[in-house]
Amino acid sequence: MAEQPLYFFAVYAPDYTDADAPARRLAVRPQHLANAKVQREKLNIIRLGGALISPDSYQSDERKMIGSMGVYQAASLEAMWEIIKSDLYWTGNVWDKEKTVVFPYQPAFPLPTNPPAQ
């Protein structure tokens, strides 16, 4: 049986902007990063990702995280949304559910290769 093809998706997930949003992000961040590491290294879902930093803080020692972006691989747009909606930043009300967007994506250049699974 042939493997199902995987497609690339670009994800833009801004954080909510209420006063408690940074605290919610920091509360779940360690587990979010641990889960992302598994998705990247063992499951080959995340190809590239990280925090978005506010333009007024990116040059300071105290960068303010205001969202996330990433390039993922999934079998379909629906499968990609399932991945997003199971993320702790989604379930923990960090990412703004009304503003998060997922687009099918075609890289112009090769993406970084994932390290071999440990």
How are the SSEs ordered, and which strands pair?
Elements: E1 7-14, H1 21-41, E2 46-53, E3 65-74, H2 77-85, H3 88-91, E4 101-104
Antiparallel strand pairs: 1-3, 1-4, 2-3
| Estimated share of beta-strand residues | 25-35%
Q: What Rg do the Cα atoms give?
A: 15 Å
Instruction: Name the CATH superfamily assignment.
Output: Dimeric alpha+beta barrel
- Major sheet size, sense and barrel closure: 4 strands, antiparallel
Pfam family, one: YCII
InterPro entries: Dimeric_a/b-barrel, Sec-metab_biosynth-assoc, YCII
Domain YCII-related: 9-95
Protein name: YCII domain-containing protein
Can you offer a commentary on this structure?
Residues 9-95 form the YCII-related domain. It holds the Pfam family YCII. This is YCII domain-containing protein. It comes from Phanerochaete sordida. There is one protein chain. With 118 residues, the chain is α+β, with helices and mostly antiparallel strands. The chain has a single domain, classed as 2-Layer Sandwich (Alpha-Beta Plaits). It is 29% helix and 25% strand. The chain contains 3 helices and 4 strands, in the order E-H-E-E-H-H-E. A 4-stranded antiparallel beta sheet has the order 2-3-1-4. The longest helix has 21 residues, at 21-41. It is globular, with a radius of gyration of 15 Å. 19% of the residues are buried. The mean pLDDT is 92.
